[in-house]
Amino acid sequence: MVASFESRPLKVAIWLMTAIGLAIIYVPPLYLVAVSFNPALQPALPRLSDISLTWYVALAKERTLISALQESLLIATITALVATGLALLSALAYMDLGKWRSRWFMFVLLPMFVPGIIQGLSLSVIFGRIGLKPFWGTVAASHLLWALPFAFTVILTSMAAVRRSYLLAASDLGASWWRQLVDVTLPLIKPGLVAAFIFSFLLSLNEFGRAFYLVGRQNTLPLAMFGKMNSGASPTIYALSGSIFLASILAVAFVLLAARSNDRKLRR
Amino acid sequence: MKSPGFLLALPTALIVLLLGFVPLIVILVWSFWTWDPATYWIRPEFSLAGYEAILEAGRWSVILGSLGKAFLTATICVAIGYPAAMAVHFLASRRTALLLMALFTIPFFTSYMIRAFSWRLVLGRNGLINGWLMDVGIVDQPLDWLLFSNFAVNVGLVASYLPFVIFPLILSMQRVEPSLLAASQDLGAGFWRTFRSVLLPLTQAGIFAGFLFVFVMAAGSATEVQMLGGAAASMISVMINDVMRVVNFPLAFAISTVVMIILFGLIYIGNRLFKLTRLFEGFTW
Description:
heterodimer, A: 268 residues, mainly alpha, MetI-like fold, 10 helices, B: mainly alpha, cell membrane (chain B), MetI-like (chain B), membrane (chain B), transmembrane (chain B)
């Protein structure tokens, strides 16, 4: 720690900016979660005595939202499976690619920067031309491009646990490339694989723009929610938004806590 | 045994090329074709009609306006993100640092649509901020410009893309040799001098990477404008949707092409100047 960073006003200023950053990210959605427990129609913070699950119970009757949720869960599962598999291969390739590494990293990352609407539109005209009708698979194709860079980075990070010496030792003992992968690398990066799967799942579940041109008859959840949000938002949408937001937070928190406890084990 | 690097890369390379890049290249080619009203499609005759149409109906100003919004968003994100990254790297204990990194990681995987939507509850006429302003007595009437305005869009964009700036900044700070900061101090430099002459130059790759990430993501965004913008508010992606409503393919393709060239051009230049990929090598928690 550098002493000149220890001046009090400076520290206060730095922490204040950090707090502002976190507040911008978290206050509105958490306020929405709180509002979702208010049985009144007018959005406001509920009094403690008023807290109710009215809107959560009402969710059960929202047929369109429920079938959209099912579609999104299907797409998210497929996206996450394929993204995790491809990301694992890409990360293993990265380790072997030597001077091509940086270029390979950039290549896998690039689709993340393509605006969702443009990616979705371009895919939809291509699919249309080759006669592929929009269905869950076409949506998953676009979500894959969005999730893959994140899954790749996560697995690549977890590769730090695989020391070169482990692989050399395994190889000295006669392990083939495949045996090294199955007996050394995969067990060490398992937390990374789980994290990549959950992150990809969430990215797909919450992705809105890419699906716009690619859905078939059945909307994805974000598209269905977007419609509801802009047609005189009934408070059930607060309940749904709130639950999706909290579920996403819990899933990420689980991944991060698991990574931390695994980290500790490795260090011991 | 020789390791199969290129073979392992093959499936991903094919998928990214076929699903990611080939469609974009096809769109680029098709943006020069001619619109055929008989088939509601295009035919392979060279035409610049799509590009000429960009210059009409204020479309150009929507593109520039979007880039302007993206620039403002990226600047604000760096201004908030830099101190936040300093807090994580220089000030926080190991425990707090991990907590902060977790808090900045979570938003990547929550819905940006829900987060943009939730600003309506905060900025609206009956929202959190107007309620508070009136309770305290700063205003008598709720402020109308808070929501469905450029202000709201910019706030929403900063909230959505702030996490993208934090990690490049933390990574670049991790690469600063602490002894350099100590040396600057031993030579009598105060905080600001050390900050300006040592820390800032050594972290410029992180600043640029963070700025670029936010800029590119914000320039391509649609949700924040759709949720929080006024009636006339537009953004490149929203404009493409509007053009597609009247199935004007060449124009939609031309806009997409122009935008992709601008964004990928910036990423290419950034990578050449600052070696952005090197920032991520050896990333650890």
